[in-house]
Amino acid sequence: MEHTAVLKIDDKEYSLPVMVGTEGEKAVDNRKLRAASGFMSYDQGYGNTCSCESSITYLDGENGVLRHRGYPIEQLAEHSDFVETAYLIIYGDLPNAARRKEFGLYLRQTAAIEPQMEKIFEGYPKNAPPMAMLSSIVASLAAHYPHLATNNFEKDLVNFDQAAAMAISKIRTIAALIYRYQRGLPAIPPRQELPFCDNFLHMMYSDPDKDYQSAPEVARALNLLLLLHADHEQNCSTSTVRMVGSSAANLFTSLSAGICALSGPLHGGANVAVIQMLQNIHDEGDDGTRFIQAAKSGDKSHRLMGFGHAVYRNFDPRAKIIGKACEDLLNKLGIKDPLLDIARKLEQAALREDYFIARKLYPNVDFYSGIIMRALGIPVNMFTVIFAIGRTPGWIANWREVAADARGRIYRPRQLYVGPLPRDYVEMARR
Ligand code: SDX
């Protein structure tokens, strides 16, 4: 049954089509509103605006539901791994054994970066923000592999499989190279026989004459962390990838823009801000009680980083999974992290205090991920880089939806102009 919405403005009525998604979500299609009525719709930050139809991820913020191509995140976290979930998110179905083997081989074969690319690193100060290095070096993939980055949707879609596997694999390698470069350590080349996460840990922590031996729990925890970050509907960085991709910019360029968006502390940079917050609380001899009081004052400098979400008005399902994995990993590795104790106290307080309950502020994906990454020996300034490695499959899948949309058009939102009314130029002598 067709639904329509009727908008009454003054003495006129306008009928607008209603679109219904496969999960029953409804949207008023206001694409023709301005032509029909002269009115635009206003939605600062697009908090209640669908920029697209997408089949990749479904979020139900009210009920804390997250599904990738219909599969609940809880089941993927329990039964799948990062590479398989990346394949699912990009191609729409779980791979059979042959496709999984082929995809894994693609990732291993494209893991190394060109020797010429390694020179780029020398152009950065050792203390450069890793996300600044990652975004620009990823953008340079378009320069080194122009045949995969023609800025022509049709041609780039023909080579999509190779570009997608290369992006996932090389972003991981570039991340490890950034870590090594910033510490004056020699680059450790990838080893084709290693699985995705083991190869990353090898490139990060091995020595030229001694391979890193990770406890199985470490690679498993990293795998879970990347899987849980793989996609998340139209978040700030994913929408950025779609926006840039809609201009027919190639995949690598669009991914670089997504990395830039993710670097902000209100988005992917929150995991760094969480650890800094917990460390400050610890260093001030506070068990969290004083900080909670300050956060309740609404003081922006005392925001509970890792809490709240633009969509979830309930628990972020990923936070629950990461919180448990964090506890398990620290127990298995015999690590007693005082920041975890403080995190638990903040979580308990936030779940009890009216200020947070009224604003539906629950722990989000970033709240525990930083503590797990500390346990994995990942330095704080690399936390958001790990998030970017995880989010790459989601960005790729969204870029592909834009590139493959025959009805697609360049993203070009409107604005409500609130600036000066027309006025004439004034010569300098009369100003
Ligand atoms: C990610 O979109 C995604 O999907 C993102 C992500 C993904 O996977 O891609 O899930 C990853 O980015 C998770 C979010 C990480 N960011 C943080 O943890 C930073 C801390 N959180 C906030 O800054 C905030 O909650 C946001 C940015 C996440 C969401 O902001 P909203 O929905 O725009 O909320 P708001 O700023 O309008 O705040 C509503 C109220 C305000 O109080 P009042 O003005 O009504 O009195 O809640 C308060 C805010 O002051 N508030 C907080 C708070 N977050 C909001 N108060 C204390 N601590 C907080 N963290």
Structural account:
This protein folds into 3 domains: 4-50, Rubrerythrin, domain 2, CATH 2.20.28; 73-264 and 381-403, Citrate Synthase, domain 1, CATH 1.10.580; 270-375, Cytochrome p450-Terp, domain 2 (Orthogonal Bundle). The strands form 2 sheets. It has a 3-stranded antiparallel beta sheet with strand order 1-2-3. Strands 4-5-6 form a 3-stranded antiparallel beta sheet. The chain has helices at 33-37, 73-79, 82-91, 97-109, 115-121, 130-139, 141-144, 153-158, 160-182, 196-205, 216-228, 236-245, 251-262, 270-283, 289-296, 317-333, 338-352, 354-358, 365-375, 383-404; strands at 3-9, 12-20, 26-28, 57-60, 65-68, 71-72. It contains 20 helices and 6 strands. The termini are far apart. It is mainly alpha-helical. Bound molecules: s-citryldethia Coenzyme A. The site of s-citryldethia Coenzyme A has 21 residues, from helix 19. S-citryldethia Coenzyme A is lined by residues 232, 235, 266-267, 270, 295, 298, 303-311, 359, 361, 364-366.
